Amino acid sequence: MQYKHKVAGYLVPSLEGMEEAAIAGMLEYPPNPDMGDLSLPCFKLSKVLRKAPQAIAEDLKAKLEQADWLEKVEAVSGYCNLYLKKDSFVQDQLSSVLSMRQQFGSQNLGQGRTIVIDYSSPNIAKPFHVGHLRTTIIGNALYKIFSFLGYNVVRVNHLGDWGTQFGKLIVAYKEWGQAETIEQEGISELLRLYVKFHDEAETHPELEDRARGWFVKLEQGDEEATRLWKWFVEISLNEFNKIYDLLGVSFDSYAGESFYNDKMAAVVQELKDKQLLEEDDGAMLVRLDDYNMPPALIIKKDGGTLYHTRDITAALYRKNTYDFEKAIYVVDAGQSLHFKQTFKVIELMGYDWAEDLVHVAFGKVSLEGAKLSTRKGNVVMLEDLLTQSIAKIREIIESKNPDMENKDEVARQVGVGAIIFNDLSTNRIKDIVFSWEEALNFDGETGPYVQYTQARCCSVLRKANDGQSTELPDGGASFDASLLLNEEAYAAAKQIALFTETVEQAMVKMEPSIISRYLVDLAQSFNRFYHNCPILVDDEEQRKARLALVKSVQITLQNGLALIGLESPEKI
Ligand code: ARG
């Protein structure tokens, strides 16, 4: 039960013309507990009610004093401060976690409406760089969050699998490449050939013509060109899939840029018919001067299409195919202009749903101490990043807990979790500097810390069950919440109560870091309780109550971790 809604619902009859959601939105959590558990700043109502804030606070106090789930109500300097009846509050919260389980925190806000998320979207035969790691992690978290809140989510990997670079790659392969080396080395070899092409083309410009020729062949469906292109795609996807497997990420559609080849002509025609296309020195573009943007290039001088052409076509296709409520593009902030232009062109075409297209931008990552080798290709580096993280966690486990079973599995869960969590630890738009020490710290505000706290809950529960299970002996059917009113227990229960609205906030702001920060707070709050309140005490009732809290924290941590793409090992 979300108490903001409970209070708001209770006040609706007294606040004529105001919606429950609006009232809930005005309620605040006071910065310190002396000012109540919830507070309504009544100055926000004085315009509508034409009354002084303090008078409103007094009126609402009189009304709220009748609620049997409130301990006390105060009207102070225009604020109406509410003190919850602690035991019924704690009872309510924990009971709802213990009955909802994996569903705790979910809501049916989406009612099955569709959201398309375009994320990851790496370029074939090019490095899967750290930027792609970020879009993959953020996109995957958004997918989980939207699904948890009742949306039907379509996950699209808009592969960069088309463009003149494939002509260059074919020429380079024919000149200097070997099939076996490509099979063995994968993308790094394709990248080497691509770089070599550029070096050689400086002194042998005729290579460029040959490359153009091969790309034209590819566009015309030439058998050899298509076979080679498909092979490059396959080699690249093999490598991308290794990273996706490690991260536990998958997609519903891999319709990349090439998918739109036969769909662009109709869109170009539509742009012409709508008189949006203008010729400029042989090229075709849509002018956006009125919106203070450079023009969007649609057709090149040589007749070829561009990134914009494909994105406009893709958006139209997605709207027709999925009838989305919103289409999200998780792409680095460097492409902001590209998306602003794309969305504007779609709006100019007369599609009012252009306003449902959202660019979810994120900042850069730099890697402290890790050397990027362009020659090798960052792909290798990224896989290294994950495998090194796993190896480091493996060492830590070996030294702390050498007798543990399935060390490899746990090292993978925690090692990968550390990288994901680190990525989601600050607002997405901020640049991040990756530091091994920070990411792998079991005590800092990291993934391993939260996962470790979750495992600690499991361990207490296991001890309570003679090592047999992590469930509550009676499934949590009965416990006396009045035994959980000491400072630490109550604080942890209050933290649990914030989970549902935290998930909702993360969705509204499309900001998974809101959940990561919440998880650190909950873990810290639990650890204060754990250090101050012995759980497996002799007093049967006390023990039962504390275990109910431990189980509730465990479920909440597990649900939150899952939403941002982390697993919850029972033992670390
Ligand atoms: N392939 C692009 C890149 O690596 C990202 C594509 C993002 N999605 C899109 N619909 N443009 O930069």
Tag the structure with descriptive keywords:
Gyrase A, domain 2, 54% helix, 4-stranded parallel β-sheet, Isoleucyl-tRNA Synthetase, Domain 1, binds arginine, alpha/beta, 572 residues, 12 strands
Write up what this structure looks like.
- The protein has about 575 residues and is an alpha/beta fold.
- Among the domains are: about 5-85, Gyrase A, domain 2; about 165-245, no CATH class; about 380-565, Orthogonal Bundle (Isoleucyl-tRNA Synthetase, Domain 1).
- Helix content is about 55%, strand content about 10%.
- It has helices spanning about 5-10, 20-25, 45-50, 55-65, 85-100, 130-150, 165-175, 180-185, 185-205, 205-220, 225-245, 265-275, 305-320, 335-350, 380-400, 405-425, 435-440, 445-465, 485-495, 500-510, 515-530, 540-565, and strands at about 40, 70-75, 80-85, 115-120, 150-155, 275-280, 285, 295-300, 325-330, 355-360, 365, 430-435.
- Helix 10 packs across helix 11 (about 225-245).
- The radius of gyration is 28 Å and the shape is flat.
- The structure holds arginine.
- Arginine (ARG) binds near residues 123, 160 and 331.
Radius of gyration: 28 Å
Mean pLDDT: 93
Record the strand order, biggest sheet: 5-4-9-10
What fraction of the residues are assigned to beta strands by DSSP?
5-15%
Please give the share of residues in helix.
40-55%
Please count the helical segments.
22
The CATH class name of the domain at 378-563 reads Mainly Alpha
CATH superfamily of the domain at 378-563: Isoleucyl-tRNA Synthetase, Domain 1
Structural class: alpha/beta
